[in-house]
Each structure stands twice: as C-alpha cells, then as structure tokens.
Amino acid sequence: MGKILIVDDDKAFSRLLKSYIKRYYPILSVQVCSDPVRALSFIRKGDLDLLLVDYEMPVLDGEKVANYARQVGIDKSRIIILSSREADFLHEQFPLGTCLAVMNKYETAQKAVLDMIFSSLQRKAAANAG
Predict the structure, then answer these.
(1) pTM of the model as a whole
(2) Which residues pair with 79 in a beta bridge?
(3) 106: DSSP letter
(4) Which residues contact 31 (CB under 8 A, 6 or more apart)?
(5) Helix 11-24 and helix 110-129: axis angle, to 10°?
(6) pLDDT at position 107, please?
(7) With 0-12 CB in 10 A as exposed, 13-18 as middle and 19+ as buried, what is 7?
(8) Which residue among 25, 65, 85, 91 is buried most deeply as judged by most CB within 10 Å?
(9) Could you tell me which residues come within 8 angstroms of residue 129 by beta carbon, excluding any fewer than 6 positions away?
(10) CA–CA dist 2, 43 (Å, integer)
(11) Mean pLDDT of 39-53
(12) DSSP 3-state assignment of 122?
C-alpha cells in the first residue's frame, strides 16, 4: 500500500515532487517515469495506489495515459492529472468524475490538495503495515 507512479517528462519537476513525498511521507513508495510509453508497463501491473500524470508530454499525452490506466483497471479515483494549463481548460478536458483531480502543478495552492491525498495514503499504508 502507498505506491505512487509519477509520469512526467519534466525531470526536474518529477525529482522535486519525489523528493518532497519521500521527505514528508516516508512510508510511501514513489516511482518516476519520464517516458510515458515506458510508463505503460508500470501501469499494466495494476498495483498503484496513485497515478500522477502530466497532461502534455511528447508521443503520448496524459489523457491517453490516463485512459490506458482506466482500461487496465486503475480506478479513476486514483488518477491525478497535472499540468501547467489553467484549471478551466483542464476541467473541460477531464470533466468531473473522470479522475480524482486535475491540478496546475505550479500553483502553490494546489500543494494543499496533494498533501491531503499523500497524507491519506500514508495513513492507509501505515495501518496496513501494522
């Protein structure tokens, strides 16, 4: 329990997010994949508690990655779409109910939402470990 996959071609952002999670939520396991095509094999395993996907990536965008994840059995409530786009645009692309959340990855206010999600995952992982 507590397994997170970050799929984002922005390696600096991914490293920063992974480092943040490991520091403040040490029970959680974080895997980073900068190649969305390569990420499909991780997703296919189906043992993810949370999938964080960048919306705009070369070759395979976040929408296609999220669709694939749902097709192989990842619950939509375990998928978060990250982007530098405005919230209104993201909500048009991902209407309510198609994923857990859509977030602008550079807005600091969004950090509180991620913290609530990470905190919840950590509590569940700790309860299952003990």
Answers:
(1) 0.93
(2) 51
(3) T
(4) 3, 4, 5, 6, 42
(5) 50
(6) 84
(7) buried
(8) 65
(9) 1, 27
(10) 15
(11) 94
(12) helix
